[in-house]
Amino acid sequence: MKVRVFSSINFTIRDFIKFFDLSNKLSTDEPIININKHLKKLRFMTKFEGKWKYQSFRPDPGSLSTDRENAKFVLWSPSGEVTVDKSGATGTLVLVTDDGIVLNIGLKINTIEGSPDQLSISAVMPLPGGKKFTNELHGWFVPKILGQDIGDDNPLVVRGSIVQTSPDIDQDDPQPIYTTGFFVLEPLKE
Questions:
Q1: Which of 15, 69, 124, 187 could form a disulfide with 11 if both were Cys (CB 3.0 to 4.6 A apart)?
Q2: pLDDT over 60 (residue 169)
Q3: Is the CB of residue 68 less than 8 Å from the CB of residue 78?
Q4: Total H helices, total E strands in the chain
Q5: C-alpha dist (Å) from residue 94 to 70, 79, 88, 151, 183
Q6: What is the pTM of this model?
Q7: E runs forming strands in the chain
């Protein structure tokens, strides 16, 4: 039997008892659980590990400000794959350019408890001559299909903003430093 908690987390009864440390309270008269005591422990359960599909977009032109008349967005990066280690603190973004060049970008990751949970990523790729290509990303864990319950067909994804914090490495259409855009991370089914 499964108990549904917060619509996105499933526990078996045994997991529920273990999670809330109820085993010694089941035969007493005291309340079985004080949900407020355990709410914080329960709340931060978003796991960020494994493989994720990555895509970023930016305004065109990159310096678009408040001019809504000509607003449009374009792909900023090729589609990529993010691999996050089991700790959820580091990972790698692999992008393959149209020319077949493989870019390996190191990620330092910080998950932040909130409503919704958040994610902050520093992305760094070493360049020749001791230089670095860097970006900062900040996103939120939200349902893939907004307005619907989270489940196998509607996983949590990360949607957020990205800012390029170094000169661009794109030789064909380089964007100025501090160009901003948005990104999406979607879990890959293994």
A1: 15
A2: yes
A3: no
A4: 2, 11
A5: 32, 9, 17, 27, 15
A6: 0.73
A7: 2-5, 9-12, 50-59, 73-75, 80-84, 90-96, 102-112, 118-126, 132-143, 156-164, 180-187
